[in-house]
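Quick log. Single chain, no ligands specified.
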Amino acid sequence: MDVFIARQPIFNRKMKVYGYELLYRQSRNNYFEGTDDDQATTNLINNTFMVFGFQELTEQKRGFINFSQNLILSDLVYVLPKDKVVIEILEKVEPNEKVLEACRKLKEKGYILALDDFILEQYSEEYIPLIELADIIKVEFPAIQGKGIQQMIEQFGQRIIFLAEKVETREEHQLAMDMGFKLFQGYYFSKPVMENLKDIGVLNVNLVRVMNELHLDPINYGSIAEIIQQDVGLSYKFLKMANSVYYGSKYRISNIKQGLTFLGIDDLKRWIYLMMLRGVQCTENAELVKNSMIRGKMLSLIAKELRIKGESDYFISGMFSAIDILMNTSMDKALEGLPLSHNVWDALTGKNNQLRWYLDIVIALEQAKWNQLKRESEYPMLSAEKYMRLYLEALKWQRMLAD
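-> predicted structure:
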């Protein structure tokens, strides 16, 4: 049975990733359709731990997993490692005595409990025992009314961690910080905080010069080596990369020109674009940069799997898919001056072509927007399980480069 697993980061007050909520859907007949809570969570747990690898998805952080009332009362939860998960109790769970007793047992065993989609006005007094058992309360931030949540944070904040979810704007994030929330989640965090506005000048000029050289025919490796050697930091990173395990070098690469010959054009282009992307990275947008790297690698893997020509274009499109957000400008301006193919330019600026279609597929998978994937297409598709395996391979690649 095919299952898609997406993840949404949860941040602490220092913008460090605290954990990932694992988002799940089951697809029948190869469509991306929802199913009941019990079956979805069961399939998620099975595929996460038995097939894909929990640690790969959560990067050694905690994984937040939704639990329905039936599953809270079952023994399924006890197959999960208590030090690796957070048990999210869905808002539809009734706080009857059986549920409360099951939650008490989970607490005794050392599990962390979170109340999901908490809206104060919708909770009656009968929920107080469940609130008192919770370690984390995930508050729907846009639904906050009055000062009730503020009073709850003041009353329970020393024992309960309050998480602001569905945070959409900078103003909401700042307000949540001021109110005392300790964890944060929402689409706002996929669009980075721009404390200092960035423009095209942030991109390393030497990297752009190298890219221009790579589009000449014939390519002059001597000129490229000279450009890289003018930049101490770039030279260091290039030699370190050329000698890395990832590129599989059996021999020591001791100079820039030797490394250029060893790598070849395609790998050199990938590295250059990766360095460009990292050039605009800061603490606030690190997660989006990481997602962009994963997109690039996954698109490259999709192109290879489906034997689509122009794998390098697919990689570049994924890598630069959020460059407008990272640089706080329009996509046209962000791409200005870069020697990109027409195919890549069209895809990144929103024109409908095959590359754009697969880019949208990857973004929809990343954000768990399954309904967007139901449309028919003239382009070949992979199975749900294959997409997930490629996604995990892209995660491993990104993590290896970060080490």
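Confidence is low (pLDDT under 50) at residues 27-34, 191-202.
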